[in-house]
Amino acid sequence: MLKILQENEKDPVNTLQRTYDNDAGGEHFTCQDVLQKVMKHKIVRAKWCKTCNNNKSLAKCRKTCNKNSGCRGYYFNKDDNICTTYLKGLQNSSTRYCAKTSAILGAVYKYSCVYGNKWSPPKVQDYLKCKKKCKTTNACYGFAYDEKEKKCDRFMRKRAVPSKVRSNGVRCDNKLQMIGPTECPCFSSSNVNDVVSDLIQGEATAYLGKESCQINRQGLYGLYYRYDTLPSEDSLSLSVSGADNDGLGVCVKENDMQSITIEEKGLCLTLLQDACKTLEDRYVDLGRCPCYNADTLAVAVKNIQDGTKILVSGTCTSNPSGNSIDFFYKDPSNSWPAEGYSVYVSGISDLKMCIIDGDIAIRDIYEQSALDCFKLIQNACQKILET
Asked: 311 is in which domain, residue-wise?
C-alpha cells in the first residue's frame, strides 16, 4: 500500500510514496524517492545516418532501466547521449521523482513516454515550490527535485519548452513500478463477497443506523451490517467516499479508514456497486424497500398513463387500518393475471412484507423498509391521480 501524503505533511525521504493533491487545479502526482544514475554513451555517428546512434543509445538506456527492477523511469538526452535512470530510493536518496498521475495511467504500453526537454528554473528552495511550478504549467509532464542540491528539474513536453531551449530529450516512466498494481486498498472482492454471502444467508443483518447502497449523509457509499455477536449499537462497514470523480477519496473496512487515490476509489466503488446489485437481485433487505424502487414504479406509472396497462379496482386505496396498500394493474384485454406491487405494514411480524410481480412475497422485512415500500406506492398513486 502506497502512503498518501497531504500537502501540509513534512514528507520524509527514503520511502516509496505517492503524493496526492486536492487543491485548485485538480492535478495529481505520483512520486517516489529515487537515486539518479547518470551514464554517458560514446557518440559515434555514421556519416550517412545522423540519428542512428541516438536511436541505439535510447534503446540501450531503456534496456538499462529494464534490467533493474528498482528502476522507476529514465531520461535520455539525445544531443549528449546521456542516460539518466531513476532507481528506487535507498538510505542516501535525496531526489523526489514525480509525474502527473493521469499521464502514467493513460499509457497503453509498459512505459509512459513524453518527448521534450528537462528544464531547471533557478532558485527553487523546496519540493513544494518545485511541484507548484510543474502543476501550474500544462506542458509540464513531471519533475524531479534534489533536496541536497536544491535543484528542480521540470520535464516539458515538445514545443512547450522556452524558445531558447531545444527539444532534445525523452522521459519515460515505468507504469507498473510507479503506480503499482491498482486495487482497492481497504477490501478485496473476496472480502465483499463474504459479506454479501452472509447477508443473503441471514448470518449478517443490515445495520439500519446508516443507509447502505447509496450515498449517505456522511458522503460514503457502502454496506453497513452487523452480526449478533456485536453489541446492539455496533456495526461494521465496507464503504468508499462518494460516487463522484473528483477529489481525494477514503475507503473504510470495519470502521478503519484509509486515504486513497482517485483510481483506487473507482475500484472500491465498483466492488460495492456490484455487491449492491447482487443484494438487490436477491431481494435482501437493507433498510429500504427490497421489492421495488422509484424507478420500477415509474415504469408502471408510464404504462398506465399511456394506456398500455390499466389499474385494478381498489388499487391505491389503503385498508381501513392504514397498514397496507396495493399498486396492481393489468393488460386491458385480459382480466387476469394482475401485475404490480403491494406492502403490509403491521405490528404482527408475519405481516411486515412486500409483494412483487403480483404474487411473490418477501416476508419479515424491517419496519422502516415496509414504510419505505408504503411511501413509494403512495407517490406512484399520486402521479396517477395528477394525470
From this structure: 294-386
* CA-closest candidate to residue 376, choices 310, 309, 293, 319: 293
CB-CB contact of 283 with 362 (8 Å):
yes
Domain boundary among 215, 249, 281: 281
- The number of domains in the chain is 3
pLDDT > 70 in the chain, percent: 80
Q: Specify whether the CB–CB gap between 348 and 365 falls below 8 A.
A: no
Instruction: Give the model's pLDDT for residue 69.
Output: 85
The tally of CA atoms less than 13 A away on the side-chain side of residue 345 is 20
Same-domain pairing of 18 and 57: yes
Cβ atoms of 4 and 259 closer than 8 Å: yes
- Looking at the structure, do residues 113 and 248 belong to the same domain, yes or no? no
User: What is the band of 375 on the pLDDT scale with cuts at 50, 70, 90?
Assistant: very high
Identify the H or E element spanning 192: helix 189-201
pLDDT one-digit tens code per residue, 119-138: 888 878 888 889 888 888 88
Contacts of 247 (CB under 8 A, 6+ apart): 22, 262
**Is residue 288 domain-resident?**
no
Q: Which of 181-185, 301-305, 365-369, 373-377 comes out lowest in average pLDDT?
A: 181-185
Name the band, by pLDDT with cuts 50, 70 and 90, for residue 11: very low
Q: Which residues pair with 68 in a beta bridge?
A: none
**pLDDT score recorded for residue 4:** 30
Q: Which helix (H) or strand (E) holds 128?
A: helix 127-135
Residue 287 domain-assigned (yes or no): no
| b/e burial code for range 56-95 (CB count within 10 A of at least 16 → b) | ebbeebbebbeeeebbbbbbbbbeebbbbbbbbbeeebbb
Burial degree of 339 (CB within 10 A; 0-12, 13-18, 19+) = middle
The model's pTM: 0.54
Radius of gyration of the chain (CA): 30
